Amino acid sequence: MRFIVSQSALERALGVVSKGMGSNSTLPILSGIYVKAEEGTLEFQSTNLNISIRHSIAADVEEPGETVVSGKILANIVKTLPDAAVSFEADDRTCTIACEKSHFRLNTLAPQDFPEFPTFELENSVELPSDLLTKMVDKVYKVTSRDTSRPILSGVLLTVENNVIRLVATDSYRLAVCDSNTETSSTDAAFTAIVPGAVFHDALSIPSMTERLLIGTTGSQVVFSFGNTTYVARRIEGNFPNYKQLLPKGCTTSVKVDVTGLAAALKRVSVIALANPSVRFDVDADGGIVKLSASSPDQGESTETVPAEVEGQSMSIALNYHYVFDCVNAATGEKDISLELMSAMQPAIFKSYASINYLYLLMPVRM
């Protein structure tokens, strides 16, 4: 195998497929990148047996062939090379890489031992704008559970129907829902899939992402396809929790606060909340303020008030400030955020409305 390709194109391609390499695998072949050259095209593949990535670029192929090279070493070499033509030549056991005055010889692995790229026939698919979907995933994927005993909670529920995209995630302590209107390729039938949260976020952060991407499903796979890149992962099977039954029909207290002001106040007050991550929210309907307070037997206490528009009665509730931070960060860029309360022992609901509507339900903690 022999080909010539630009350093910049090769570096970008390796950046795409490196996300699929097995990092701590006992199988050396999984830490490699499969390279195949034919008819002016280079195809790169990586897999850790849970996800598989395939990406292709144009190149001057002088002799077709295939090989597997250590992905980490190859990527480290290419990123240090000057932006010039890179020549690559491989035989059964080694490959040589040359760029201007730099020369490298690497041991290779047998390409026939590399796992075959998953074959699939999509049962359902939908084409979506990638920029909007990325913003939506950023708002919900941190809410997915890390508990491996309940894999369904590690996923994000994606539904597309009547040009409305909705994402839902929960870890049983909190729930995040966001939706947005956009033109989609979906038909009258709704598209539904439970996508692993880490996979969803990872796929959308691939540098070769295009303006629109195709998401499809098979019986056991979820497939992302965009440009010259295909990303295949195992889908989560099962029934997602009925989150709609958790949403109350109304509230007794509604509070509207400035997002930036709330974030800054929460950051200062929570400095005291080291051993106990709870921050108390005291809503004063008459004074039009929300007082944030935290206390620690060892450190002391902190308080700060935030101006607010309050409808309903005064109320107090304690919330895990780490979870509130995730909510406030997800609403960054919005001017206001609303907090709806029923009682000190019922969930608090944060809401923001913009091009992406956002709802965040959070269970209270003991005061």
UniProtKB/TrEMBL annotation:
Xref: InterPro entries: DNA_clamp_sf, DNA_polIII_beta, DNA_polIII_beta_C, DNA_polIII_beta_cen, DNA_polIII_beta_N
Subcellular location, principal: cytoplasm
Pfam families membership: DNA_pol3_beta, DNA_pol3_beta_2, DNA_pol3_beta_3
DNA polymerase III beta sliding clamp central domain: residues covered: 127-242
GO MF entries: DNA-directed DNA polymerase activity
Name this polypeptide is given: Beta sliding clamp
Family: Belongs to the beta sliding clamp family.
Subcellular location field: Cytoplasm
Assembly behavior: Forms a ring-shaped head-to-tail homodimer around DNA.
Keywords from the UniProt entry: Cytoplasm, DNA replication, DNA-binding, DNA-directed DNA polymerase, Nucleotidyltransferase, Transferase
Boundaries of every DNA polymerase III beta sliding clamp N-terminal domain copy: 1-117
Domain (DNA polymerase III beta sliding clamp C-terminal) ranges: 244-366
Function, in words: Confers DNA tethering and processivity to DNA polymerases and other proteins. Acts as a clamp, forming a ring around DNA (a reaction catalyzed by the clamp-loading complex) which diffuses in an ATP-independent manner freely and bidirectionally along dsDNA. Initially characterized for its ability to contact the catalytic subunit of DNA polymerase III (Pol III), a complex, multichain enzyme responsible for most of the replicative synthesis in bacteria; Pol III exhibits 3'-5' exonuclease proofreading activity.
